[in-house]
């Protein structure tokens, strides 16, 4: 597995260098291009995932760096799978990631009339024909990588006959699949995309934007390049699977009276461990109920990441560290988490939250008394100031911070042992209370009033500092912890991806106790629960209920991976 990251990688994207930026710089320097125009071209058949973020950062990034512009273009040529919901959602997601297309919102469907005209133009020039073959027959004639294709018997029909049939296709005279329009290129070409590719197919389906206007639709190949040319796109940047389509992209541009001549360049897709980046698969996860929706925080979608609390800047940083190359690789999910952690560490307010509470009674602390202790909001940012945290006789600590019979390396609370409570006092465990089943339900402790603030005047040390929350002041909340959606780093590599789903990808903790300051947490804003990780308030929850999503834990598996790789 390749991990494309070195320590001196730029993290802002500014001044980034890669083969595409080299091409753009060369075109500008040589005067071949005056203004760089790129486009991000999603098909509105699902929501965007983090793979799309790579394409956006490249397209919008290049345009910005070289003083050009980037269009948002919907490649909406397959109405059976596309919907308004996605058109709107995608725009939201592009903006969330930090990109803006201004007046350059385009749709391939804006060009349907022009594309149709160009199809007639090709027929008239003897470069396209209507084929009566079915999809199966066309496939059977296509040949293979090693065998040439065979020509359709309809290939030599006259331009007039094709034109007549094509017009009748548009008029709705024929059924779905009855006929297609094909470019007349070369059935013996080594490139299968040049073996008389289909340009139009009949689809009696309403379109989200053009409604019932059309019952035949251009294929991706016909619509995409020509839309680029209409919009004046100079550099059409796409992923490597389109490399074999480039000769067709060029053939169409060379054989049509298009108003400009874009060039296509391909880069490798983003692949990420422990997840899938394919809308088709993501739709399946949503529709079959394996996740709660496109915005399930375990999804690699931008809405999933947003709901989980990933800052857009962390996603952009991640993409820029991965870089742009032509070689396929799989990037560790841990790198994405690392980017989030690094950014959140600088900005997140620190808070005390007990996720699995164990009650502690401080026997020598007066009943009914409480005091406010000063706590630092963010040690990385003095300007974040301090806050008051209430302390009282009954507290909660984390269940896993106590062991009745601790092993050698467990330094936290145990019978007879003294530890520090963060921002508060030293406490010593005096007695363990259990229920009838033998489970520990309460600890009776004492505190040392002279240790307020966390240090003992006599200089004695403790080995652990625990977080805690005053029981009387605690705010109750639900906290959701997430793990990888798939157990395998390469889901589906050895069978059905559904078998690789991680049954423990979600842990729901219902009775968490938070310090009261967390009541004021705005949805989506990151906080650090001390010693645990970064969390943010779920934006989809009804008012009055507190649900926090864990963005990432504090433990940094990426740092570990890197440490291991270094000699
Ligand atoms: P999917 O396979 O998830 O359906 P797609 O390529 O069909 O993705 P589009 O909506 O056509 O989705 O993609 C819009 C743009 O985003 C295209 O230019 C495509 O190349 C790019 N893109 C899609 N997935 C990735 C990825 N994993 N890494 C980089 N770019 C991607
Ligand atoms: Mg696609």
Question: Main traits of this protein?
Answer:
single chain; 567 residues; alpha/beta; seven-stranded mixed sheet; 23% strand; elongated; disordered N terminus; binds adenosine-5'-triphosphate; binds magnesium ion
Short description:
This protein has 567 residues and is an alpha/beta fold. It has 13 helices and 25 strands.
Characterization of this structure:
- Helix 2 (50-65) packs across helix 11 (312-322), helix 7 crosses helix 8 and helix 11 (312-322) crosses helix 12 (333-347).
- Helix content is 26%, strand content 23%.
- Helix 3 (84-97) links the parallel strand 2 (69-74) and strand 3 (105-107).
- The chain has 567 residues and is α/β, with parallel strands linked by helices.
- Residues 1-13 have low confidence and may be disordered.
- It is built from 13 helices and 25 strands.
- The chain has a seven-stranded mixed β-sheet. Strands 19-16-17-18-12-15-20 form a seven-stranded mixed β-sheet, with no helix packed on it. It has a four-stranded antiparallel β-sheet with strand order 4-5-6-7.
- The structure holds adenosine-5'-triphosphate and magnesium ion (MG).
- Residues 41-43, 51-52, 54-55, 238-239, 269-270, 277-280 line the site of adenosine-5'-triphosphate.
């Amino acid at each position: 597995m390749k991990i494309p990251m070195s320590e001196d990688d730029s993290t802002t994207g500014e001044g980034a260098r890669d083969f595409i930026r080299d091409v753009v710089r060369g075109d500008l320097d040589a005067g071949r291009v005056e203004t760089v125009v790129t486009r991000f071209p999603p098909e509105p058949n699902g929501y965007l995932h983090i793979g799309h973020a790579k394409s956006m950062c490249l397209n919008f990034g290049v345009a910005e760096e070289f003083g050009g512009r980037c269009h948002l273009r919907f490649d909406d040529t397959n109405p059976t799978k596309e919907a308004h919901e996605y058109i709107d959602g995608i725009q939201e997601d592009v903006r969330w990631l930090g990109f803006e297309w201004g007046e350059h919102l385009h749709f391939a469907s804006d060009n349907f009339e022009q594309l149709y005209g160009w199809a007639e133009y090709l027929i008239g020039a003897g470069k396209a024909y209507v084929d009566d073959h079915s999809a199966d027959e066309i496939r059977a004639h296509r040949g293979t990588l090693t065998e040439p294709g065979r020509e359709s018997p309809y290939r030599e029909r006259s331009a007039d006959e094709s034109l007549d049939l094509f017009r009748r296709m548009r008029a709705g005279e024929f059924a779905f699949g009855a006929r297609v329009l094909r470019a007349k290129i070369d059935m013996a070409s080594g490139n299968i995309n040049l073996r008389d590719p289909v340009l139009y197919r009949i689809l009696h389906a309403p379109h989200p934007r053009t409604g019932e206007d059309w019952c035949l639709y251009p294929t991706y190949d016909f619509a995409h390049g020509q839309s680029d040319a209409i919009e004046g796109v100079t550099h059409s940047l796409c992923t490597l699977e389109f490399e074999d389509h480039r000769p067709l992209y060029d053939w169409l541009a060379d054989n049509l009276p298009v108003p400009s001549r874009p060039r296509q360049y391909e880069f490798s897709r983003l692949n990420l461990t422990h997840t899938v980046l394919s809308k088709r698969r993501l739709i399946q996860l949503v529709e079959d109920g394996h996740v709660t929706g496109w915005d399930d925080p375990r999804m690699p979608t931008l809405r999933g990441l947003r709901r989980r609390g990933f800052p857009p800047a962390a996603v952009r940083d991640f993409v820029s560290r991965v870089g742009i190359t032509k070689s396929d690789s799989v990037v560790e999910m841990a790198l994405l988490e690392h980017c989030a952690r690094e950014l959140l560490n600088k900005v997140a307010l620190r808070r005390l939250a007990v996720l699995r509470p164990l009650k502690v009674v401080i026997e020598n602390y007066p009943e009914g008394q409480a005091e406010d202790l000063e706590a630092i909001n963010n040690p990385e940012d003095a300007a974040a100031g301090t806050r008051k945290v209430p302390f009282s006789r009954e507290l909660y600590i984390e269940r896993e911070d106590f062991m009745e019979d601790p092993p050698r390396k467990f330094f936290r609370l145990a019978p007879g042992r003294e530890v520090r409570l963060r921002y508060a006092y030293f406490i010593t465990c005096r007695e363990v209370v259990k229920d009838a089943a033998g489970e520990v339900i309460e600890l009776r402790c004492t505190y040392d009033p002279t240790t307020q603030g966390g240090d003992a005047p006599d200089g004695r040390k403790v080995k652990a500092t625990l977080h805690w929350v005053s029981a009387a002041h605690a705010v109750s909340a639900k906290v959701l912890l997430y793990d990888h959606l798939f157990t395998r780093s390469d889901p589906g590599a050895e069978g059905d991806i559904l078998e690789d789903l991680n049954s423990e990808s979600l842990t729901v903790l219902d009775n968490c106790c938070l310090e009261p300051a967390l009541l004021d947490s705005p949805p989506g804003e990151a906080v650090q629960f001390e010693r645990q990780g970064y969390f943010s308030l779920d934006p989809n929850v009804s008012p009055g209920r507190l649900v926090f999503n864990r963005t990432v834990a504090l433990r940094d598996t990426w740092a570990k991976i890197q440490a291991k790789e270094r000699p």
